[in-house]
Design a protein that fits this description.
This protein is mainly beta. The chain has two domains: 102 residues, no CATH class; 74 residues, no CATH class. The protein is built from three helices and 14 strands. The strands form three sheets. Strands 2, 3, 4, 5, 6, 7 and 8 form a seven-stranded mixed sheet that branches. Strands 9-12-13-1-14 form a five-stranded mixed sheet. It has a two-stranded antiparallel ribbon with strand order 10-11. The chain is globular, with a radius of gyration of 17 Å.
């Protein structure tokens, strides 16, 4: 069974809800960490500066940051994924700065999940597509698990690269380790 790792805030009462700006002029505004392909270029450190709209709360292991096109993982989450022998992820340096308190969080990295899998069951799913063939809207998503490589424990859909898919063993390990900030949906419940 597979799940979608959502980029939404897990606990809106307790978790940090951050908004801010990224040093795009140095990094390049076309740099994307969620298209499932390896980034070969040298990437300078990403600096995320919180703005006044940020609601400070618990800094979770999986953060949702506007303006960052990719997943943001703490060292705890990265270490767990290493222990699970999940290697198809590139990591890029990230500093999160709170200018109000002068706090600098250096424990996070942007995760670029590598690997695109063409496993959407188009006959049983209810989808609307862009002209390019990528998914625009999902009313019902069904995966053909026979088309997923056995060692693929985290990957992106070739038809919708923004959705990271994780195997149930990864979801269970995250829950058992007490990793915070992760919201999962069963693939068939996502819309």
């Amino acid at each position: 069974m597979y799940y979608i790792l959502s980029n939404e805030i897990a606990d809106e009462e307790k978790d940090a809800e951050l908004s801010g700006d990224v040093n795009l002029e140095e990094v390049g505004d076309s740099l994307c960490f969620n298209d499932g392909v390896s980034i070969k270029a040298q990437v300078p450190k990403i600096i995320y500066t919180m703005n006044d709209d940020s609601r400070k709360g618990r800094m979770t292991d999986h953060l949702s940051l506007d303006e960052v096109y990719g997943l943001v993982f703490s060292s705890r989450l990265r270490e767990l994924l290493r222990e699970l022998k999940i290697e198809k992820i590139q990591y890029f340096d990230l500093d999160i700065i709170n200018p109000k308190t002068n706090d600098i969080y250096t424990d996070y990295k942007i995760a670029n999940v590598l690997g695109l899998v063409d496993c959407v069951d188009k006959d049983r799913s209810e989808l609307t597509y862009y002209d390019s063939g990528t998914i625009e809207f999902i009313d019902k998503l069904i995966l053909d698990e026979s088309r997923i490589p056995p060692l693929a424990k985290i990957f992106r859909l070739s038809n919708d690269v923004t959705l990271p898919i994780v195997h149930q063993s990864v979801k269970a390990a995250i829950a058992n380790a007490g990793i915070t900030g992760c919201v999962f949906y069963k693939v068939e419940d996502y819309h």
